[in-house]
Amino acid sequence: MNVLITGASRGIGLATAKRLAAKGHCVGLFDIDTHELSHAIKQKAFKKANKNQRVITGDLDVTQTESWDNAIEQMVNNFGGIDVLINNAGVLVSGVLPTTDLDKQLSLVDINCKGVLIGCHKAAPYLADSTNGKIINLSSASAIYGQSEVATYSASKFFVRGLTEALNVEYANMGIKVIDVMPLWVKSDMTKDIEVTSIDRLGINLTVDDVAKKLCKLSGCANRKISKTHYPIGLPAKILHSTSQVTPDSVIRFINKKIGAK
After folding, report:
1. What is the pLDDT of residues 70-103, one digit of tens each?
2. Which is it for the CA torsion 151, 157, 161, 163, positive or negative?
3. Catalytic residues
4. What class does CATH assign to 2-260?
5. pTM of the entire structure?
6. Is 118:63 a contact under the CB 8 Å cutoff?
7. Domain positions in the chain
């Protein structure tokens, strides 16, 4: 299995790459931070994969179409194709919207939305050639109901959720499964210094390995056995997702206000 992972220099992306490499899969780690990526690939977890030429790294700015072309070309030249795309790259900006830097918010939209869209577009022809081609997008529990103090991030994950649902139907004729994972807060570099009320009240109970474990399992699962589109990770996310399916918006809003509003 050949897997392309974006945002793979640290966090969930790196943890997932380690798990996949340990299972003997061919993995492409791509990131805009090539310096960090060069250090990551030297870790003990990749020793055997490096020796057997089952791992590659490369520069990928997910907002640039040409950068995607180069990353895909590397995968094809080194491994012969792509079976799984994990759209993991993303950023987070916290704070009440009018008090935050607008350029940072716009950059977030470019990375979290545009980056996923380009990846889904560019990788599709190659995934269609695979017998088990799939796209796994990193959504979030914040895509269940809009979250205050991370409004733009939450909205970007609604975009990911909507795109995933649409392509899950649209790409079926090509034999490509499109799904997403929806974790709540994850302990990582992304959440290390942010201040959000929902974190104060709920804490951060997931690790990058918790998410990586699910991504690894879904990557290797036969498409015919994947029956769902969304995969919440962690008990709170599962409860919120299940509740949202049968509960009026007014009740979900009340719950979210209690969790995340000051």
Report:
1. 999 999 999 999 999 999 999 999 999 999 999 9
2. positive
3. 9, 139, 153, 157
4. alpha beta
5. 0.90
6. yes
7. 2-260
